[in-house]
Amino acid sequence: MLMDGTAAAKRIVDQAAADTAALKADGVTPCLATVLVGSDPASVTYVRMKQNRSAKAGIGSWHVELPEAITTRTLVAALTELSQDPDVHGILLQHPVPPHIDERAAFEAIAPEKDVDGVTMHSFAAMAFGEPGFVSATPGGILRLLDEYEVDLAGKHAVVVGRSPILGKPVGMMLLARDATVTYCHSRTADLASYTRQADILVAAVGKPKFITGDAIKPGAVVIDAGYNPGNIGDVDFAGAVDKASLITPVPGGVGPMTIAVLLEQTVAAAKMAQRRL
Asked: Which residues belong to any copy of the Tetrahydrofolate dehydrogenase/cyclohydrolase catalytic domain (predicted)?
């Protein structure tokens, strides 16, 4: 069965829109600031999608475009300024940034209460320790999609292929918090298939097209493809996996819409918290 992220995301965004309307009635308009460094075509497309979805939910957008040659110091200053702006409730730094930028330093310039993409060390620690805070948007979307299809995680073996600090690592922490037994793997794991064949829940987040083949999947596994590569190709060889998995996310239409939905939901939540602090 295909896991329809588009339909599940619509329900989340519809609720975010209703909450936004209630906030506007009280004089508060949730605002998401997007920051784009350079003009990478894929990043430009992603930011535009997020702005369009924000507009449909009634959420305000503030877009900041910065030149590719910008320094880390200047980017940090821009993010710090947004963090201090009371009219901005959520901040999204589109990643990856150009290689000369210290991405971690840039992420850490985002105030935790505005980190609606869940990229700071504060947010990661909150996820790991089960404390209040914003979750990384893609892992959060994955967990919501698993819930949508009533996948029981307790006692299951979850294998995460990928170790990104904003995807692979946090999704493993979130699965662990739901009583799954978690194994982390990556592109350099020796005999990777011996691990993935044990997975009741397999999360592919390695950033390599068709990296996980059908023969590396346990029959009946739930397969979450969090990869997105040129040509709308995921990290899983869909044709080889679809007959092995009990549930599988398509690319596109699976994890992607859920990521944006969680981002918008958390922006509205940030606006609510800001309103309570007034």
From this structure: 3-117
Residue 164 annotated as binding site:
yes
Same-domain pairing of 150 and 246: yes
pLDDT in tens, 250-269: 999 999 999 999 999 999 99
pTM > 0.90: yes or no = yes
Residue 86, domain CATH: 3.40.50.10860
What pairs with residue 92 in β-bridges?
34
Give the residue ranges of DSSP H helices in the chain.
5-25, 41-56, 72-84, 103-108, 121-129, 137-148, 168-177, 192-196, 238-241, 255-277
Nearest to 118 by CA among 275, 262, 277: 262
Which of these is catalytic: 94, 115, 156, 169? 94
User: Pairing mode, if any, of strands 247-248 and 60-66?
Assistant: unpaired
Query: Are 182 and 233 within one domain?
Result: yes
Q: Is residue 57 part of a domain?
A: yes
CA–CA gap between residue 254 and residue 4 (Å, rounded): 6
Q: Which domain holds residue 173?
A: 137-253
Q: Residue 117 catalytic?
A: yes
What residues does 182 pair with on adjacent strands? 158
The active-site residue, picked from 19, 115, 117, 200, is 117
Q: Is 162 annotated for ligand binding?
A: yes
140 assigned to a ligand binding site: no
Is 14 catalytic? The answer is no
Q: Would residue 31 count as lying in a domain?
A: yes
Please tell me whether residues 102 and 173 are part of one structural domain. Answer: no
pLDDT tens column, 7-28: 999 999 999 999 999 999 999 9
